[in-house]
Amino acid sequence: MLKLIVKRILLLIPLLWLIATLTFFLLRVLPGGPFDSEKNLPPEIMANLQAKYHLDKPLPQQYCYYIQRLSKGDLGISYKYLDRSVNDILASAFPVSLTLGIAALCIAITVGIPLGIFAAINKDNAIDAACIGIATLGVSLPGFVIGALLIFVFGIWLKLLPVALWESGWHIILPALTLAAGPTAYLARLTRTSMLDALNKDWVRTARLKGQSYWQTILKHVLRNALVPIITVLGPLSAILITGSFTVEYIYAVPGMGRFFITAVSNRDYDLVLGTTLIFSVLLVIANTIVDILYHVLDPRIEITD
User: Fold this and answer.
1) What is the torsional sign of CA 295, 300, 301, 305?
2) CATH of the domain at 255
3) Same structural domain for residues 92 and 32?
4) Partner of 139 at 20 to 30 A CA spacing, among 85, 223, 233, 237?
5) Same domain, 115 and 259
6) 162 and 222 together in one domain
7) Domain span at residue 255?
8) What is the rounded distance in angstroms from the CA atom of residue 142 to the CA atom of residue 291?
9) Number of domains in the chain
């Protein structure tokens, strides 16, 4: 395990360099620039802006300047949020997205997996149909519709929860429920499929013939094997949830990374896009490493590859 973690950390450095390089040049290839939205700027002012952010230099020189700053941990400065560095923006936005993402992930796991198990052990009856219906509804409805419904019911009608901003623990509930809706439904359907596949294996019938009870077989053997494909999707799903959702953060006015990222892409805020992309990459590597470790915990026969 320790060897795997050390190798992943060492591989993270060239991986981040490759991602930073590709993202840097892709952003420059795209049409438009960070100051194109500014109307009727005199050429002198435009030239000063380009010089201030080193955009007047040749592209290879801009790249070398960025990589040099990146090697020192400096993610650059924002072109749109004046007097704020990318480090400062992400330092304030990341904890918000992390809190919201972890809350949504916990809801998705604690609701989605049991819902899928319940549907699988009640296959082809009314309970299974109800569980699949709920899961299908969660997958089908977009986030802004679910968010609007939750705001209307719990914020306006029942007046139980705040519907915007990020000021207390109560403000986390509705955004977390909205963000978790899709992943919860997806995990429920995946768990059901995985459980049904495991239930049809020969070793399940063998365990029952040896005298094990139905629930003992389900919890000790079926669920353990069914969790392997579920763990697979939890890695990237965790990274996606933690980095934030623009729709959810916009609806509830949550100052997280998702809102900053979409705004940065729209405004061609190069350094902010690069910084957010690198943070997402680090989270994805960490999540996949945890998934590989959990593979071995669930089934020691699975070999962990580097």
Assistant:
1) positive
2) 1.10.3720.10
3) no
4) 223
5) yes
6) yes
7) 88-298
8) 28
9) 2
Determine phi and psi for 85, rounding to 5 degrees: -85, 160
Quickly list DSSP for 2-64: HHHHHHHHHHHHHHHHHHHHHHHHHHHHSS--TTTTSTT--HHHHHHHHHHTTTTS-HHHHHH
What b/e string do you get for 71-109 counting C-beta neighbours within 10 Å, with b at 16 or more?
eeeebbbbbbbeeebbeebbeebbebbbbbbebbbebbb
| Domain shared by 237 and 292, yes or no | yes
CA atoms of 64 and 300, how far apart (whole Å): 45
The first and second tokens of residue 156, run together, are 């306006």
Q: Which amino acid is at 73?
A: G
Helix axes 223-243, 257-267, angle to 10 degrees: 50
Check whether residue 285 and residue 159 sit in a common domain: yes
* pLDDT tens by residue, the chain, 306 residues: 677 677 777 888 888 899 999 999 988 887 777 776 666 667 777 777 777 777 788 888 989 988 898 888 888 888 888 778 899 988 988 899 889 989 999 999 999 888 888 888 888 888 888 888 888 888 888 888 888 899 999 988 988 888 888 888 899 999 999 999 889 988 988 888 888 887 777 777 777 667 777 677 777 777 777 777 888 788 778 877 877 677 788 888 888 888 788 788 878 888 888 998 898 888 888 877 777 777 666 666 555 555
Phi, psi for residue 126 in degrees, rounded to 5 = -65, -35
Has residue 6 been placed in a domain?
A: no
Contact 245/143 with Cβ under 8 angstroms?
yes
Residues contacting 189, CB < 8 A, separation 6+: 116, 132, 135, 136, 139
Do the domain assignments include residue 303? no
- 102: in domain: yes
